[in-house]
Amino acid sequence: MSRLKVNLVTPERRVLLREVDQVTAPSVMGEIGVLADHLPLLASLKEGPVGLFDGGVVEVFAVSGGFVEVD
Question: What are the pLDDT digits (tens) for 60-70?
């Protein structure tokens, strides 16, 4: 199965760089779910949880805004 390369950054530093199976994020238009081979996407984020799914483990990060880019 293909995996996603996730680069989670703040204005100050990189928080995380690794591969996962799936990402969920709170966009201003609703929750986004991203799997490998997703079409390109650029969306604004609102405050909420970003979930990184790796096997049966989910790691959650809080965001206060920003954007998500899939390429």
Answer: 999 999 999 99
